[in-house]
């Protein structure tokens, strides 16, 4: 018995009652370590749905802790210590592209062949879902039998229906499962490339429409998505997490969540108050989860309720111009030590380019309100390498940070933490056609920013590595031709950058990874993810890209009256 596993199981507190175990065995795998997995609300929501289904016997599995040298020889499930390869279905919940490598590691440890076509009739059905796959599943297309593109509440029950029907052979199950709206079976889709290696189309040999329609829950009040298992070792293990919304009304042009989750949907204040009341019975800190929290209708009242009950509201990132004195007071009263505000860019010009709809006076006013209400430290989030960026835009990050420090002079704020991250182009955004900036100039910008920000005094700086951003961009924009690159990286996980550096420039046995990272796509290019229907018109994204170049902002979504993007 693994002592760490038993300790974690004993420390967990499950907040739902699972149904009786059924005949379909499903191992739900999060391709990262236990503390990361158990902080993920999507993973917890799927675990509850499967566990409450009386037709299913659901167990969990995670990437082993520590480095590869210390991993066990066989991946076993968390509850039963059953070999993962023995389950009927192995279902991956994938939130981040950088976990694609971990998917391969989990398959290897489970004894499941990496490539779908190499699996025999008795192999588990390997399925995958989660936000990363909604955007672009193609990098994993050679490794996954079936993707579920959409929100689990809408799809999982239909998938289980198909799997349990007769006959139960692997091929018969796959044929039925691909009938679920939103299901994507990669082996039915055959990309076509021209002599230059550009994608020009997809040949489809399945029944019906080749487009895959992303499923979504129209009314979030039908489902409360909260912490379902309290795990002290989890990231944010001291919090009870409450999902407040899906999507974002602001349409920042770099942000995938603002487009792939359209239309933006909010839970009602009544539903959220019920969730908060349940959470306060278990934890004193309530983590409010959403793409942008200050825009949530009733958020000030909700945070005041939490503080009045003796709890601490902890919202994710706040848009500065939507912060009100009432919200700032509620956060300060609740004992919040740190609040994140995301200007994203230092200059007014660049904020117009990215459609941030945010001015410097609004940022400074929000900082003053938050600190005046008792918040002890501020985290400011910026990006570099954005499309059309100039040296003046980069210098604006230092200038804005200095202005924040000056505005807070004499206040009780302890430190200002500045987080700087290279821009990573994401599918289904207006910047999906733009490349990531080359690593040498990025590295120079980041080093200079680090020095100049540190010289301000009272400022802590954290900087994401351009190498990490390169890998994320490769996995975000890649097509299924990067499968052999993933296999090479997974074979030597501790030397992934050495491997990528060897392959760059077309040197090696694979397609050049720079082709996906540093290449600008024409606006009329066929993109690897175009076969997914997110209900957002591609012409709208093109128009937004052109408005970015022209430095024209777009007002926030009004789902009651606007139908411009097509999602409503």
Descriptive overview:
The chain has 568 residues and is of the alpha/beta class. It folds into two domains: 3-213, no CATH class; 238-477 and 536-549, Aldolase class I (TIM Barrel), CATH 3.20.20.70. It has 20 helices and 21 strands. A six-stranded mixed sheet has the order 3-2-4-5-6-7. α15 (439-454) links the parallel β19 (416-422) and β20 (459-463). α3 runs parallel beside α6 (152-164). The radius of gyration is 24 Å and the shape is globular. The N and C termini lie far apart (52 Å).
Briefly note the CATH topology name of the largest domain.
TIM Barrel
Q: What is the domain tally?
A: 2
- Report the sheet-strand fraction: 15-25%
Under CATH at level 1, the class of the largest domain stands as: Alpha Beta
* CATH homologous superfamily annotation of the largest domain: Aldolase class I
Low confidence ranges: none
Assembly state of the chains shown? single chain
Structural class: alpha/beta
Strand elements, count: 21
Name the shape in a single word: globular
Layout: helices, strands, pairs:
Elements: H1 3-11, E1 13-14, E2 24-30, H2 34-37, H3 41-52, E3 56-62, E4 89-93, H4 100-110, E5 125-129, H5 131-135, E6 146-148, H6 152-164, H7 170-177, E7 183-184, E8 189-193, E9 199-204, E10 212-213, E11 229-230, E12 239-243, E13 245-246, H8 257-260, E14 265-266, H9 269-280, E15 285-289, H10 299-308, E16 312-315, H11 325-333, E17 338-344, H12 348-353, H13 360-372, E18 377-384, H14 391-407, E19 416-422, H15 439-454, E20 459-463, H16 466-477, H17 483-491, H18 496-503, H19 514-517, E21 532-533, H20 538-549
Parallel strand pairs: 2-3, 2-4, 4-5, 5-6, 10-21, 12-15, 15-16, 17-18, 18-19, 19-20
Antiparallel strand pairs: 1-11, 6-7, 8-9, 13-14
Helix pairs in contact: 3-6, 4-17, 6-7, 9-10, 10-11, 11-13, 13-14, 14-15, 17-18
